[in-house]
Specification:
The complex is a heterodimer of chains A (466) and B (218).
Chain A lengths: L6 H24 L28 H11 L9 E10 L4 E12 L8 H19 L4 H7 L5 E10 L11 E10 L2 E9 L8 H5 L3 H7 L14 E2 L6 H4 L6 H4 L33 H12 L5 H5 L5 H8 L8 H15 L5 H4 L10 H10 L8 H22 L12 H10 L9 H24 L1 H11 L1
Antiparallel strand pairs in A: 1-2, 1-3, 2-5, 3-6, 4-5
Chain B lengths: L3 E10 L3 H15 L1 E3 L1 E3 L5 E3 L4 E5 L6 E5 L2 H21 L4 E12 L8 E15 L4 H26 L14 H4 L7 E3 L2 E7 L6 H15 L1
Parallel strand pairs in B: 1-8
Antiparallel strand pairs in B: 2-9, 3-4, 5-6, 7-8, 7-10
The chains are: A alpha+beta (466), B alpha+beta (218).
Family (chain B): Belongs to the ATG101 family.
GO cellular component, one term (chain B): Atg1/ULK1 kinase complex
GO biological process, one term (chain B): negative regulation of cell population proliferation
Amino acid sequence: METDLNSQDRKDLDKFIKFFALKTVQVIVQARLGEKICTRSSSSPTGSDWFNLAIKDIPEVTHEAKKALAGQLPAVGRSMCVEISLKTSEGDSMELEIWCLEMNEKCDKEIKVSYTVYNRLSLLLKSLLAITRVTPAYRLSRKQGHEYVILYRIYFGEVQLNGLGEGFQTVRVGTVGTPVGTITLSCAYRINLAFMSTRQFERTPPIMGIIIDHFVDRPYPSSSPMHPCNYRTTGEDTGVTYPSVEDSQEVCTTSFSTSPPSQLMVPGKEGGVPLAPSQPAHGAQADQERLATCSPSDGARCAATPSSSEDTETVSNSSEGRASPHDVLETIFVRKVGAFVNKPINQVNPPDSPETGSPLQGSLHSEGSSRGSSGNTHDDFVMIDFVEAQLDFSCFLKKPAFSKDDILPMDLGTFYREFQNPPQLSSLSIDIGAQSMAEDLDSLPEKLAVHEKNVREFDAFVETLQ
Amino acid sequence: MNCRSEVLEVSVEGRQVEEALLAVLHTVLLHRSTGKFHYKKEGTYSIGTVGTQDVDCDFIDFTYVRVSSDELDRALRKVVGEFQDALRSSGGDGLGQMSLEFYQKKKSRWPFSDECIPWEVWTVKVHVVALATEQERQICREKVGEKLCEKIINIVEVMNRHEYLPKMPTQSEVDNVFDTGLRDVQPYLYKISFQITDALGTSVTTTMRRLIKDTLAL
């Protein structure tokens, strides 16, 4: 669909479309991170903010988008799609929405590329910012955490809407006519989520019942892997540089801004999202899940109950070296699945009754209780569970959650071990007590002599207090 | 040139008025604001960068995006606050409307003052309902959130029709098209006005109540 476009305009248009596609992906994925996004306005043009909008670039997302595009641009019959799906802790997944950047054959030959097209693309990005907050997946993504996570996948080619279930709805974000075709941005989203409020996802029991109805085997196996929408890069820890430098150096060549480009950094903790957690022992993570459901009277264990994504952040602060970006992403993905491994109920669940809530309480209880004698059911029950919990804790202790292996190795684990098997108080031991008593008596005259020498100091001290 | 006019209606609880109006106004202004213009020689200019931020509503299950400009946000909150006060003190049935008008200034010769020519007007009609129970309020919270989602989609649809927009002005005329008084962003010249409308009877309140009761009955 070539027109009378001169080479400079054609070059500009291709660049605009390419960066528009990359920014579109950033806006969509960032809107599903689960956090509020905030960028600053700048009265001075920097030349690196495409479409005069402050949209930060997450390097992994840019990398994935470029990988999907593979040097091509969205064109007629070649759409760029961003698929957003939900994955539960049980490993079930469901497509929520497909965002499509398409091109059709309707050309606007009169339109000015470097001015009108650019400004309209900017307007379209603003619309995308607004629309990404109003589809049902947004509220779900804000509540993602331990029960489910939101994943994204970028692919190029034919749009695949089969995974959205019946009766999905479509919202058109907007269109921009160009001399080579009309760019259309739209979103198709699952609507049967409307019957599943976010509250239902917060209640653990109904999840399986609801989700089962929506799982359909994908007719087309994904050619590209899914990635979580809740990660953050740490440039220092990954030690990986993404091959995107050459593109980011391209200035937003418009008739407006002229200053040199600068690399946009990934947002910090405030605006960004945490790394995936280091590999916790399965028992540990199962314990975390378990902790979330135990009753409030379960003392210390519930104090560690993860309640929100903040705890995910705590867990994920234990960083470790990464081999490569793909390993990072795939490892993150796998770890998320592994993190929700199911263990047999009888191994995992704590005792239901509050007074036997924790193995710690159980240990105290068993210390004082008469074992095996009249021993009520609670005591026996506690003992058994204590033993089982101890077995569960063995892997937990080796590599407990929330611990930073590389900074304070086994600090938390050491604490638990010591606390579980505390040494006997020395003063309670008769032999030791007797020994120290004799020593004390012998040393008493010496101590008295020393104190008598320092009597004046003591008196002066007492006077200062009065 | 005809002025484009769009009307949106919202039915909200009293405490939701402010957030509902801000959501609509900010969404419109997001699309009608650019970065600050910096004119250079030879008639070229560069444009600053517009940042955005998400705003969670406290009384509505809704999040909207606004331009990152505290000055603009303060200006809108001020006028919305005045509207809310007027609505409360009117003693009527809680009906009012707020208009956001974008205009251009046309210089006139002395002794005539400059003419303000509107090119786009957004009117938001507000119906305030009173709810009795917490359950009704919770349902209202969700329903209003869903309705606002629809309004945002409507706004975006209008914006992307790419209908009339004032031409980019020269440096001498920029103040006739844009509000250059803000430090960080540059919206098109706009003014906001409101009025408390006469009571139209209790039909709206009754309809809203009926809607909520029907939902509960399900």
